[in-house]
Amino acid sequence: MLERILQWDRETLIYLNSLGIEEYDLFWSTVTNIYTWIPLFLFFFLLIFWKFPRKEGIYMALTVIFLIFFILIATDLTKEFFGRLRPNNNAEINSLIRVLKNPSSFSFFSGHAASSFSITTLMVLFLRKKVKWCWVFYVWPLLFALSRIYVGVHYPIDIIVGAIVGLLTAFAFYNLYKRVIVPYLGLTHP
């Protein structure tokens, strides 16, 4: 069963990666770069401080920051535990795909998918009642995660598991915020 899943994973990567068009390489290389998204992160924090009282905004921002650190640590520990080679470092597959980036760390699970889905989900949970269009934020993690297949550094399962981990972690941190921070601040709403 596991071998069939891994075979599907390899074949799907090869297929999706082969859809890449050279004219779009710069776009996807830019999308996959974390620094490209700094303006979005600043926008997230501006929205928090614009829509919520200062003290509440500070605690929301701190919750997001702790979430980021948690995701980064969980991702690194998981990658070291599983030790799955990235497609670009795997001699069985790297000659069959277009490789635009060459990170040397392990592949499972995608930190890009986990971090982007967790941050976005937590922001949506915080802002959904005050910013009705906040669901559009999910464009970021979708593009960010898919870029990892395009540039040849992650398998689809890495992305799927990373996204699930990110979503679950965001809900856990949101529940922690509701159960610990909201009562501490004396708020009646999360």
Structural features, described:
The chain is mainly α and 190 residues long. It has one domain. The protein has seven helices and no strands. Helix 4 runs antiparallel to helix 5. It starts with a helix and ends in a 5-residue tail after the last helix.
Taking all residues together, what is the mean pLDDT?
92
Compute the number of helices.
7
How many beta-strand segments? 0
- What order do the SSEs take from the amino end to the carboxyl end, as H and E? HHHHHHH
User: How does the major sheet shape up?
Assistant: none
Structural class category: mainly alpha
Helix content: 55-70%
Number of domains: 1
- N-to-C span: 43 Å
Low-confidence stretches: none
Query: What best-fitting shape do the alpha-carbon axes yield?
Result: elongated
Query: What radius of gyration results from the CA coordinates?
Result: 18 Å
Strand fraction equals under 5%
Describe the structure in brief:
With 190 residues, the protein is mostly helical. The protein has 7 helices and no strands.
How are the secondary structure elements laid out?
Layout: H1 2-18, H2 25-31, H3 38-51, H4 54-82, H5 111-127, H6 139-150, H7 156-185
Notable traits:
single chain; 190 residues; mainly alpha
